[in-house]
Structure formats: structure tokens, C-alpha cells
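note to self — DONT lose this again. spent like an hour looking for the file last time. sequence + predicted structure for the chain T wanted, 74 res
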Amino acid sequence: METSMSLDLLTQYIDHALTFERMADAEPDQGLRADLERQASAYRRLAAQRARRLGLPLPSEPERHSARGSRHHI
């Protein structure tokens, strides 16, 4: 049961990170974009901590837009 709940939390952290990353990508205000990116980063750190505790591989790094609009891994 504990593992199931921990996996659920891991999934939720990743989902939240992706949501905040999408919002940041669409946000024209630089200050708000930076806040959204920080929130996404915090959720990714939580997901990584949870994955380590469960002995799972770390989640992949987020994709970022380059100056020309294409996406690449960082």
C-alpha cells in the first residue's frame, strides 16, 4: 500500500511539473514565467527525491524551447 501511494505521489509531482512548464512556455510576462519555472523545478525535485526513495530511475529532464522555438533536452 505504501509503495502504491508513493508511486501516486511520484506521478502527481511529474504531472504538476509538466503543467507548470506548459504554463511557463505560454506566459509572456517574464517575471511570472520565472515563477512558474521555479514551481516546475520544485515539483521535479520532489519527484526525483521520491524516485530515489523507491529505488526507481530519476525522471527525465524537462524539454526546453530554444530561441528558434524547437525543443531540446537540457
